[in-house]
Design a protein that fits this description.
This protein folds into two domains: about 250 residues, Alpha/Beta hydrolase fold, catalytic domain (Rossmann fold, 3-Layer(aba) Sandwich); about 120 residues, Serine Threonine Protein Phosphatase 5, Tetratricopeptide repeat (Alpha Horseshoe). Strand 7, helix 7 and strand 8 form a beta-alpha-beta unit. About 35% of the residues are buried. It is α/β, with parallel strands linked by helices. It is elongated, with a radius of gyration of 25 Å. The longest helix has 20 residues. Helix 2 packs across helix 8, helix 11 runs antiparallel to helix 12 and helix 13 runs antiparallel to helix 14. It has an eight-stranded mixed β-sheet with strand order 1-2-4-3-5-6-7-8, sandwiched between helices. It is built from 15 helices and eight strands.
């Protein structure tokens, strides 16, 4: 974690000059007041793309940490570039009013009920009106605001897809409601829960009890993650939990790792190519846009196909390569090998020769295509 923190700090310093964060004064009819909203727009923002929304409560101290991790992970293509929206809650008294609930039923009350509507009916529509947004939405909160974020789970159509709970101070009956609700979902939801070794005793006890219930959850649509950080107190756990939460929630977006390759792909009883298309279909379903298949993932699946000896997958990879990287030799290399495996050497030779004129990609270079063609000529005496 220390190594990660140092890398993150260096990265943040490197990109600070290009920061696109601004403060909006958002006039709220629901609250009858004007609120300070921080908005971070990705440096490469384009009208031709869409971006997930990450709402950060307690933004006056959590916003920078969320933005830094968003930039870092998206730079390495481990999560999509995102719009981060922070709601500042400077004063303790105002924060408590924002998150107010009825002591009897544990549901939002007074200003808390209005603040609930402000997020869903004013803040999110404001962002969606002014920026190109994807379907995926996440919310981040700490103690009181973490509890508050959970109320959006109970809408008939939940506002958020992912919930980062940093040492929540639960309202009455909240834990039972969370478990019941998460058991019901028929669409994918992500739920992260964190405490620390030196967290406040009352909060930690309830968090661990909830973890005990959620760890036995059998709903395949729920992706649940939990951390209990050693030596972390109620406040310090937040900066450790945010990168952990984001790394786990966006794990399906990341390029295929060595661990994923060894533990999942090599253990497949079905086609590795199907695994690849399913992965990218999940990304499309979750975020509402098509992600270009990374070269890393092409090569991982190619390696698995060779081990599985599933020759037809080479042909499918070739067609996908032509779609994703049309100016490169990816299509010609995969089709050349496909024709070799299916004992059609003349067609393989033609593919390698045609691939020589295309751009190199990864290990597939012009020299490699030339070598492949020469070897075929030697083998068959052409």
């Amino acid at each position: 974690m220390k190594k990660y923190a140092m890398l993150l700090m260096a990265f943040v310093c490197f990109i600070t000059a290009n920061a696109q964060t601004k403060i909006e004064k958002l006039k709220s009819k629901k609250l009858n007041e004007t609120r300070d909203i921080q908005i971070h727009i990705p440096e490469g923002y384009s009208e031709e793309k869409v971006y997930p929304i990450i709402v950060v409560l307690d933004a006056h101290y959590l916003f920078e940490s969320v933005v830094a991790n968003t930039r870092y992970y998206s730079y390495w293509d481990e999560m999509p570039e995102s719009i981060v929206v922070g709601v500042n809650q400077y004063e303790k008294e105002d924060r408590e009013k924002d998150c107010a609930y009825d002591d009897a039923n544990g549901l939002p009350a007074d200003k808390g009920a209005k603040f609930f509507e402000f997020i869903g009916m004013e803040l999110i529509p404001f962002i969606e009106k002014n920026y190109n947004t994807a379907n995926f939405k996440m919310i981040v909160g700490h103690d009181l605001t973490a509890n508050f974020a959970n109320y959006y789970l109970f809408k008939e159509v939940p506002l958020f897809d992912a919930y980062i709970n940093l040492s929540p101070y639960f309202a009455p009956k909240m834990e039972g409601r969370i478990v019941t609700r998460l058991e019901e979902f028929e669409k994918k939801k992500f739920y992260y829960l964190a405490t620390g070794e030196e967290d406040t005793k009352k909060a930690a006890a309830r968090i661990k009890d909830l973890h005990g219930s959620l760890s036995t959850l059998k709903n395949e649509n729920i992706f649940y993650y939990y951390d209990d950080f050693p030596e972390a107190n109620h406040n310090s756990l937040a900066v450790q939990a945010i990168p952990r939460a984001m790394s786990q929630i966006f794990s399906m977006y990341r390029p295929i790792s060595v661990k994923e390759y060894k533990e999942k792909i090599l253990a497949l009883k079905t086609s590795p190519f199907i695994y690849l298309t399913d992965k990218y279909q999940t990304i499309k379903d979750l975020f509402g846009f098509e992600k270009r298949v990374s070269v890393n993932d092409f090569m991982a699946i190619y390696s698995a196909v060779r081990k599985s000896k599933n020759v037809e997958d080479l042909k499918l990879l070739a067609k996908l390569g032509k779609k994703e990287y049309p100016d490169t030799a990816l299509f010609h290399f995969f089709m050349g090998e496909y024709y070799e495996k299916t004992e059609k050497p003349k067609k393989a030779l033609r593919m390698y020769q045609n691939g020589f004129s295309m751009n190199s990609i990864d290990f597939i270079t012009k020299d490699l295509m030339l070598d492949k063609a020469d070897k075929l000529k030697q083998d068959f005496g052409w």
